[in-house]
Design brief:
The chain has four helices and no strands. By secondary structure, it is mainly α. It has one domain (22-77). Helix 1 (3-35) runs antiparallel to helix 3. The longest helix is centred in the N-terminal third of the chain and has 33 residues, at 3-35. The chain is globular, with a radius of gyration of 17 Å. The model has no long low-confidence stretch (mean pLDDT 75).
Length: 78
Amino acid sequence: MHTSLILLMLIVVDVSSFLCVTCSLITNNCYKLLENQNVTKNKVVRDAIFQILGVMVKRFNHTIGLSIVLLALTYNIG
């Protein structure tokens, strides 16, 4: 392989792992905010959190993670 192709492959792998870590950080912070009842009382903030999570589900396939967290939150509240 040419060195430029190897370099390009390394860049693609690095960017995809960066995106994965970034998405996890964002979703984990959203989940923590949802656990705080003082934060979720504010409708604007709550809607913004769910919009962010909706993007994560749609673009980065976070469906299972979101389902588990929402189920756990529902179980803890009820």
